[in-house]
Amino acid sequence: QVQLVESGGGLVQPGGSLRLSCAASGSIDSINVMGWYRQVPGKQRVLVASITSGGETRKQDSVKGRFTISRDGAKNTVYLQMNNLNAEDTAVYYCYFQDLTVPFRTYWGQGTQVTVSS
C-alpha cells in the first residue's frame, strides 16, 4: 500500500501561481510514476502532468509553458508549480502514484481544490 498526502490548493486570482505538493509513503516501488490529474464536475478526470522515477515528464498541452512538474526522490514527493493560472484551471487536482512493474498498482490522493477567480 502507498499513501499520498497532498497540499497546496486554494483560491488564486487569474494570472497568479500555486504550488501543489504530494508526498508518498508506504511500500514504494523504486520504478514508478507520480503526477496529477484534475477533474471538474460532470467531466472525466484528465492527466495534467506526470514524472517517472527516471525523470521523464508528460504534460497536457493546455498547461505547457505554465506548469512545471518535479520530484524529490529522497522524499518521494512530487510538486506541481502552476503559473499564469486561468479560470479553466479551476478543478479538483488529484495526485497519483503508479508502480511501473507488475502488478502496476495505482494509488490516488484525496484531492485538493484549486479555484482561479477574481
Describe the protein's architecture and organization.
By secondary structure, this protein is mainly β. A hairpin with a 6-residue loop joins strand 4 (32-39) and strand 5 (46-52). The protein is built from no helices and eleven strands.
User: What is the percent of helical residues?
Assistant: under 10%
Rounded radius of gyration (Å): 14 Å
Number of strands: 11
The helix-and-strand class reads mainly beta
Q: How far apart lie the N and C ends?
A: 40 Å
Residue runs with pLDDT of under 50 for 5 or more positions: none
State the order of secondary-structure elements, H for helix, E for strand: EEEEEEEEEEE
Overall shape: it is globular
Biggest sheet descriptor: 7 strands, mixed
Number of helices: 0
Q: What is the averaged pLDDT score?
A: 95
Provide the β-strand percentage band: over 45%
Question: What is the element layout, followed by pairings?
Answer:
Elements: E1 2-7, E2 10-12, E3 18-26, E4 32-39, E5 46-52, E6 57-59, E7 67-72, E8 77-82, E9 91-99, E10 106-108, E11 112-116
Parallel strand pairs: 2-11
Antiparallel strand pairs: 1-3, 3-8, 4-5, 4-9, 5-6, 7-8, 9-10, 9-11
What are the key terms here?
118 residues, mainly beta, seven-stranded mixed beta sheet, four-stranded antiparallel beta sheet, 0% helix, globular
Please outline what is shown here.
The protein is mainly β and 118 residues long. It has strands at residues 2-7, 10-12, 18-26, 32-39, 46-52, 57-59, 67-72, 77-82, 91-99, 106-108, 112-116.
